[in-house]
Fold this protein.
Amino acid sequence: MKKYLKEIKTSGIILMFIGIIMYRLMGMQVGYIACGIGIALWLVEVIYKAFHWQEYRKDNTQNIMMMLIIIMLLLAFLIFAAR
């Protein structure tokens, strides 16, 4: 599994972008599914690295910071969109 982490992460990111493009630019509802699969693949990588904390300490701190920033951006968007 360790040697496939980079491929899992890359394919997850590509699927997320494909899902965003399909939904936003093409108006296709199936973009949600592609984006969800991409997030699930990225989550597999994050969970694997979390269980092997000592080996991936730097990556884990970067993932935590990225998740916190994304959560703050989503909350800001929701507050802005609710007005």
